[in-house]
Design brief:
398 residues; alpha/beta; Rossmann fold; 46% helix; globular; binds uridine-diphosphate-N-acetylglucosamine; binds uridine-5'-diphosphate
């Protein structure tokens, strides 16, 4: 079977990379990759780390492009690739414009779609926007739905989707394990990272921040920045914020926070750098989806800068709290975690509600028609050592 994986943004690349490696290792499947160019710089970092190369490279991004403009260009460009490549099935990931347009393009050509990370729902089609709608759309046209958790499966079932659903765990944990194994096997790289971030102040606790969601543009992001200034006024805190390349984010963040002595605004980071900083962090503030999944696996407390989340499992596990975008609420909740050691310890419990590192193999098994031992988060999975990426690829590819 010819399987074409299509992705375009940073989080899709991180979560599809280990799957592409697993597809490549399966003799029954012929795997190829199409990258759409939705994120150029941020995607290249991930492709390099995992040693991936695109078989089809599109160039859909235009400066100042609207969501409709992007969607239209994606639909036409992906259609051209489908026409040339004639895959037997298409795999897309998550809830981006790339995923929704690629799924529709395949559906129009009656090519079966497999949806990786199916079934997540916030219950509000305006938040995350437009991602909640994108995900519903992809689920509804998919033949195979790879739901990370039992609640994601339940949400998809409730909508009456027609495809078959498997609970696989989230491939983000496979990616995290592979990346951490690479980092841990390489003392020279760890030393280089410590050197790169030598400016971190050992006497101040590190608060790591990411924020880029469209529904937070404007007032929400201004409130978040004001709360960060409040926090940076403490004498025991330093803030590091790798700022997303979206001009709507850059504009507000740079204008409000640049130049503060204890706030470091930096470029979007390579995945390994970001994981190194996550491990080094005391507390994480984010509106990102993937970070909500990775941080609990690392035992790091997270305050989520959103009113609703399509990832409720870590909230239920008590390692993540939704705080929205009110300046007062963000500052109050962060100060509590910084000041109350007992509360902080409760948040630090390691939790792995999103996966056990075997999601990719389950997806490959499902595609090959083999029986799948589904992910059951209630079972305690002993962490298994993962080979570093350079054990899978030659050094020159890393
Ligand atoms: C997209 C996804 C969102 C995901 C996010 C991850 C949609 C609708 N949303 O949102 O689900 O959480 O990616 O980052 O698909 N830019 C660059 N270079 C890059 C990346 C972005 O210049 O490598 C700039 C461009 O000006 C671009 C803008 O960022 O127009 C916004 O990117 P876009 O992909 O439209 O949306 P995101 O907000 O990043
Ligand atoms: N990430 C990264 N570099 C950064 C910030 C985040 O590699 O500077 C990783 C992070 O670990 C997670 C993913 O990017 O795996 C999240 O991507 P993003 O926040 O862009 O999108 P979302 O997950 O919200 O869709």
């Amino acid at each position: 079977m010819r399987v074409l994986s299509i992705f375009g943004t940073r989080p899709e690349a991180i979560k599809m990379a280990p799957l592409v490696l697993a597809l490549r290792g399966e003799p029954q499947l012929h795997s190829s990759v199409c990258v759409t160019g939705q994120h150029r710089e941020m995607l290249a970092q991930v492709m390099g780390l995992f040693g991936l190369q695109a078989d089809h490279e599109l160039d859909v991004m235009l400066a100042g492009q609207s969501l409709n403009g992007l969607f239209a260009r994606l639909l036409a460009a992906v259609d051209g690739v489908l026409d040339a490549a004639r895959p037997d099935c298409v795999l897309v990931h998550g809830d981006t414009s790339t995923a929704a347009a690629a799924a529709m393009a395949a559906f129009h050509r009656r090519i079966p779609v497999g949806h990786v990370e199916a079934g997540l729902r916030s219950g509000n089609i305006h938040s995350p926007f437009p991602e909640e709608m994108n995900r519903r759309l992809v689920d509804s046209v998919s033949t195979w739905l790879f739901a990370p958790t039992p609640s994601a499966r339940a949400a998809a079932l409730q909508e009456g989707v027609s495809g078959h659903i498997w609970v696989t765990g989230n491939t983000v944990i496979d990616a995290l394990n592979a990346a951490l194994a690479t980092l841990d096997a390489d003392p020279a790289r760890q030393q280089a990272l410590a050197q790169r971030y030598h400016w971190l102040d050992g006497r101040r606790r590190l608060v790591l921040v990411t924020g880029h969601r469209r529904e937070n543009f404007g007032e929400g992001l201004r409130n978040i920045c004001a709360a960060l200034r409040d926090l940076a006024g403490r004498d025991d805190v330093q803030i590091v914020y790798p700022v997303h390349l979206n001009p709507n984010v850059q504009g507000v963040v740079q204008k409000t926070l640049a130049g503060h002595p204890h706030i470091h605004l930096i470029e979007p980071l390579d995945y390994l750098d970001f994981l190194w900083l996550m491990r080094r962090a005391h507390l994480i503030l984010t509106d990102s989806g993937g970070v909500q999944e990775e941080a609990p696996a690392l035992g790091k407390p997270v305050l989520v800068l959103r009113d609703v989340t399509e990832r409720p499992e870590a909230v239920a596990a008590g390692t993540v709290r939704l705080v929205g975008t009110s300046r007062e609420r963000i500052a109050t909740e962060a100060n509590r975690l910084l000041d109350d050691a007992a509360l902080y310890a409760q948040f630090c419990r390691k939790a792995n509600p999103y996966g056990d590192g075997h999601a990719c193999q389950r997806i490959v098994d499902a595609l090959c028609g083999r029986s799948v031992a589904e992910f059951r988060p209630e079972l305690r999975h002993a962490p298994e050592p993962h080979p570093p990426l350079n054990a899978i690829f030659s050094e020159s590819q890393l």
